[in-house]
Amino acid sequence: MRDMSERLTKRFDHTNVLDVSDHVDDVVYDIEIAQGICPHPLRLRVRRFRPQPTDITYRRYMDDGVPKKQHIPAFCLADVKRTAREFSEYIDRYALTGLSEAARDSDDLIRETFLMLMEHYNSLSEDMKMEDVGNAQEAKQNTAGQKGFLQKIIRLWFAMQCLGMSPEDGNNLPLPGRLSVPRMIVAQFDSIRHVHIYKRLAPEVFRVFHNFLTSCNRHAWFTVFLATFLLLHHVACASQDRYRYAKQNCEGKPQDTRYGNLDQPLTGFVEELHQGAVMLLAHWQYFKRCDLMNFNWDDVGDSALMSLEPYQVEFVKKLVAGFKEKSGLIPTTPAEGCWEHELFWVSRMFVSELSPKTGWMPPEAFTRDKPSVGRE
Q1: Where are the beta strands (DSSP E) in 100-224?
Q2: pLDDT at 77
Q3: What torsion do the CA atoms of 134, 161, 241, 338 make, to the nearest 10 degrees?
Q4: How far is Cα of residue 185 from the mean position of the Cα atoms in its chain?
Q5: Helix (H, G, I), strand (E, B), or coil: what is residue 77?
Q6: Beta strands 58-63 and 42-48: pairing type?
Q7: Cα torsion 94, 99, 103, 104: sign
């Protein structure tokens, strides 16, 4: 996976999980970080350290058009390997809970879909482990591997969410009402997520997801639908976060692209993120095998939705109606902020083909080849 770190230190990169050795003293502090997507805080043991010139100990932000910096005390993880183990356990324990919390302030279409994902996960049996779904043929077997797949894709999603903050006063700070996590801890967590979560979990998740998408298994339709929705919603959230980061760190200077200058790693990350979203939508277009926006809900019988439970059919029907109702409220161009709008990417799951001859048209995505698109 591409480096999506913010380059907060030059001591190590995102592929190395390392302790910081130059501590100020032997005092270890126990702190709690509120994720914003889970009612249970993440508990960490941290220590003060002596920052080097290449260590970032501040957060940039704009205050009425004036670039400013918020100083953040220099703390690091007391034991990075122990933290990695505890973070993995935290994800295992609270990933499912995070679904309902993450969508609490979202649009009702997002919130209801996340709640349905939780309900669907709890309804599935564990008749076959995810790792046993080794090829497309096995993916065709009724509900084989669906619960294990959803469990791991939810864990992956939960790990991808940004570290949260704790309360702090000041409306003009970069994160009003919240205290920024010390930058070295963010850098160390970038490494922990990459080495202990992404590298181990992502290849397996996407291999099984690909097998489901290419299997034409009607019994997996609802599972694939919900998993696709979850990932596409994350694309919007990640795009919004990268857009915010570029705005806060530009110091009022014009940028090459909407997401920062061309030489910045995070700009390339957004490009690959959008390319992945378009590829996922293309696979979904093949897999869904129906036109949801013009679906005959009175004749589900021999359609792609024939294996869904009645309440699942009703849920999809209600969701389609919701997107029809809100279609005029969703931005359609990068200049309007479509890529960052939480309904944009998921709404593309419901787009009809213009005609049998023209086929499906992918949405415009961010690319460094066209840096001016959406640039402010």
Answers
A1: none
A2: 96
A3: 50
A4: 20
A5: strand
A6: unpaired
A7: negative
168-to-3, 38, 162, 179, 361 alpha-carbon distances in Å: 30, 19, 18, 5, 46
Helices 199-213 and 265-288 cross at an angle (nearest 10°) of 30
Amino acid identity, position 291: D
Q: What is the pTM of this model?
A: 0.89
CB–CB of 57/71 below 8 Å?
A: yes
Angle between helices 108-123 and 221-249 (to 10 degrees): 140
Taking CA atoms, 166 is separated from 6, 34, 158, 177, 248, in Å, by 20, 6, 19, 8, 19
Compute the distance between CA of residue 117 and CA of residue 129 in angstroms, rounded to an integer.
19
pLDDT at 261: 94
Q: Which residues pair with 32 in a beta bridge?
A: 43
**Confidence tier at 137 by pLDDT (50, 70, 90):** low
Domain extent listing, the chain:
1-109+124-215, 219-376
